[in-house]
Amino acid sequence: MYIVQSIIQVPEHKTEQLIDIYRNRSRLVDEQPGFVSFQLLQSENTPAEFVVQTTWQTKSDYIAWVKGTDFQRIHELERQYPDQELSDIKPTVKRYVVRAE
Asked: Taking the model in full, what pTM does it have?
């Protein structure tokens, strides 16, 4: 398994808006070969910090998603989001290989 986390810090007054965006996400990633799961995590200690986490069968599955047109289309829409405070956020991305379950 392969896990990708995008860590996002949003302005505190934007937390509910961000949650709504992900609750209403396109779900295109869900249909990708090797996709396992998606979670939006919110920090208990720092409520304006979120982690967008996807789990994949393999790193190759994730790379194929990133190189695909659906990924490009989703991220282009994010850059055009009318709320500048949210569209300007640059996540910190971390990638992990699952070594034991």
From this structure: 0.88
